[in-house]
Amino acid sequence: MLGLIGRSWAMLFASGGFKVKLYDIEQEQITNALENIRKEMEVLEQSGALKGSLGAQEQLSLINGCCDMQEAVEGAMHIQECVPENLELKKKIFAQLDHIVDDKVVISSSSSCLLPSKLFAGLTHVKQCIVAHPVNPPYYIPLVELIPHPETDPSTMDRTHALMKKIGQSPVRILKEVDGFALNRLQYAIIAEAWRLVDDGVVSPSDLDLVMSDGLGMRYAFIGPLETMHLNADGMLSYCDRYSEGMRRVLKTFGPIPEFSGAAVQKVNQAMCEKIPDDPKHLAARRKWRDECLLRLSKLKREMPSE
Description:
- By secondary structure, the protein is of the alpha/beta class.
- Helices cover 54% and strands 10% of the residues.
- It has 2 domains: 4-173, Rossmann fold; 183-275, N-(1-d-carboxylethyl)-l-norvaline Dehydrogenase, domain 2 (Orthogonal Bundle), CATH 1.10.1040.10.
- The chain contains 13 helices and 7 strands.
- A 5-stranded mixed beta sheet has the order 3-4-5-6-7, with helices on both faces. Strands 1-2 form a two-stranded parallel ribbon.
- Helix 1 (4-15) packs across helix 2 (27-46) and helix 10 (225-231) packs across helix 11.
- The longest helix is centred in the C-terminal third of the chain and has 24 residues, at 280-303.
- The two termini are 37 Å apart.
């Protein structure tokens, strides 16, 4: 649980006033995670961006760690697994949890695309299992996709949805499992067409990104594609009446799934590295800038009336 995603979950749960126990098989990982969380919370507090009603020290006092799984889950109401995206590794963790948890705790995975039917297959406590997929970085981007196993009890979905709302996230219910869930299916569709447009010489990599950052992304930061359709005409029926023929014509011209390799990847990589060299220092600096932008955007979104 102690990578970026795990640390972010710990901070989010603590921001809601919940006691958090970090688990890892290595004490050094726990120690480093606690130190990183402390530093990040103190910076957030100084900048006025710390989530929750408690101060940094109060939130930090809620987070502890241990190397014993049984101790880590004792008395827990919610378990959030955050190991690497490896099916066999995750299944091993869930099998271990299955032997030691009670019939009340929710067992949740942070998986970004592994199907619940594969993750939780054969578990005794499958009714308590769910995927809660956050968006990186979770502390600044509130969306969480909730995906049930076919045998997940509806109360598990309801409890997890309520918990995510309690800690300030924006949970969405994926009503049945599908490969990639919703967010990555949309993301991959955009990536695929972006790649084709660059590879076909229609637009440069830098201008392609500008189409999103200064175009579609501006409105998608506040409203989704369906509401955009509704507002860009006299309602949804009007939009489809006006534009469906053109949309179908354009969609038929979309090419095959890209390979994301060869000359195309070299072309895109060169453009990206001209903007942001791919050494650790430059990438870390750009991620820091991105997170600061997300922080300011999330603050603006909170200040904007929802209606």
